[in-house]
Amino acid sequence: MISVTPPNSDTPPTETIVARIRANAAAHPDQVALVCGADTLTWGVFDKRINQVANTLLDIGLRKGDNIAILSANSIPYAELFMGILRAGGCVTPLSSMASSDALKKMLTDCDAKAIFVAEQYLGLLDDFIADLPLIRYAIDFEKSGFADYETTLGNASISDPMISIGMLDPFNLIYSSGTTGTPKGILHNHWMRAAQMERVSPNGYDDNAQTLLSTPLYSNTTIVSFLPTLFGGSTVHLMPKFDARTYLQIIEREKITHAMLVPVQYKRIMDVPDFDEFDLSSMRIKFSTSAPLRADVKADVLARFPGKLIEYYGLTEGGGVTVLVADDNPDKLHTVGQLAPGNDIRLIDQFGVEVPAGEVGEICGRGPTMMAGYYGRDDLTTEYIWHNDAGEVYFRSGDMGSFDPDGFLVLSDRKKDMIISGGLNIYANDLELVLLEDSDVTDAAVIGVPSEAWGETPLGLIVLREGSARTATDILTQANTRLGKSQRLVGIEVRDSLPRSTIGKILKKELRVPYWEKEIS
Asked: What is the distance between the alpha carbons of residues 329 and 294, in angstroms, rounded to a whole number?
């Protein structure tokens, strides 16, 4: 397998997350490590259960680097499994609950999972094929023939630390990039990559009795990049199995939450809670946003009404270049995703792989201390993903288009694959979506390319209207097109009740495009 070496290879991180978790439990065993609803777990008990998970896996013959799958909503057992797999020397393979049954089968076959731990609510996704796969099956919260009971199994395992030696280049986790359709790609991270991310623990206050509230799923890198620093810092993780805006605010107020990781759609729903201003959110220190660009108007609303700093990260699950926007310090840059994080570099290239002139839009290629080891078992895909500069250094191609403003802030244009080519001209859907969202009656919007006999493809707007709005699609279309350039104008507007999104809030444009390419719109 191709191995991608980060730029800081001469000064690698020195402490694994596994070692720090062990040390934190020894240092303050009576402090609370995990909270999920009414359930809590102290660091001391957490550590013992981590050992029991690790010893269970070693007892079934786990070898270093074996993949262990989890399919569950956020829960305390999920956190135990995550850390227990690592302590045994295994590779955590969290599976998307948004994936189809067919995609899950491909994932489990691709990674040759040694075992899988399943929650009852997702058992139906596995029923058609699970008996045909040669893996050991564990039931987290139900009883079923062919599945070993989680609690019973842990009760029979030793609470002693197996003290497996963990190296920085050993596999840490395998995250599959496709959760809905298509062929899944396994993104492999090693302990080095994850340990390098822990440099942000102290600067962000994760080691200062932080109370971090997480409501996005633990199979997502969005969640993991806040989950791990909180535990590394010896603080407390609060897990929500399912997001609800009002409940989220209630938990912040009741538990005195200090840190939050949210995706843009969650920020919008939280800020739209009618009595938002009645909640006591004064405990909040830092709120993070990632996974998709947070709209400038939503950022402004968060800055005005939601206590604590607002920090937006731009980056990829694969790693590479990272930018950071500290919104409080840059109120005039809310339309951007910030400046390069320390130790990171981003180059913008054209379709031929040549760097574009300053100020022009190009595909974002990034290089930094946190880079994936590669796509699991797919050296061909890893090679396609890499761009080399003139010095031969490795950069990851993001598939995103963007430009740097004169102050070095990155402005995103669109996903390369979502760019619409109409009559030979490039149209960035994001530019059109921003115009639609400036309309006070439009609460959500997506622009996709649909077939056109005259132009090859042309942009179509799909919108969700504010509740109670009497506006028509024709009215919205007319207003938007008066503000768009001639080559950008929308062929039409369709009003929807909602737009399909992943569990981390990304609009599923591939899903939206499918019906239109079965017919032709001129």
From this structure: 16
